[in-house]
Here is the input.
Amino acid sequence: MPTLTDKTAVITGASRGIGKSIALHFAENGADIAIIYSSNENSANEVKTEAEKYGIKAKTYKCNVADFAEVKTVCDGIIQDFGKIDILVNNAGIIRDTLLLRMSEEDFDEVIDVNLKGAFNFIKQLSRPLMKSSCGRIINISSVSGLMGNPGQANYSAAKAGMLGMTKTIARELAGKKVTCNAIAPGFIETDMTASLPQAAKDFADRSIPLKRMGTPDEVANLAVFLASDMAAYITGEIIRIDGGLSM
Ligand code: NAP
Here is the structure.
């Protein structure tokens, strides 16, 4: 049964991987969706076409989430196009993995700017419209790397841990307006991001995950649908791990 009927959702990084799956599950559950992408216009348009089959309204927006001014312009456009926002999913993310001794300043800054500042930029621009919703939801896609640390990811784990602190602060600040803010911390999920990992990292994943497999984008999307729905109205400031037991 659709659980997000009449809601409007903004999903960053929705052209591929986890974000695409969240966008399509939201659409299947009746939400109108704003699909944010960085460069893959064709993939974003394919998500829009697929989502529209569920009879909802979908639009694509090209936007570098790390660019504060660009995010403002795009968010103004989304408000104009949809009239309201109920759900924001900060999912856009990148990795620039390398050991600390080889990590450049650019590797560090770029990952922080996209993964952490990108989430801040969207929350900053959309918090007022979310406060006007009777059921505002912010869902930040973090990572178990932000909880456990991971060799080669000083930049990424810092960004993802930063998201967790920001999630709890935003949850406290917006609770009075009935906006919840939660984080999902996935482990290894089958997407382009993990496809690019070295074989040694994939072998480590196979050995270390108690459920002995990687997760799927659909499994993360199901959790996002629940957090976005009215069923999760009393959950805020929470970090929910979805990692096959990897970080327990
Ligand atoms: P992915 O397949 O590599 O997709 C990344 C998405 O982010 C794409 O839609 C991409 O858009 C978008 N994006 C990248 N940089 C952007 C920017 N500067 N501005 C706007 N959009 C941008 O990644 P994924 O595996 O689905 O990961 C999604 C999220 O889950 C990320 O935050 C990631 O850190 C997190 N996560 C993933 C895993 C995993 O195992 N896969 C585990 C834990 C956490 P384009 O298509 O236009 O490039």
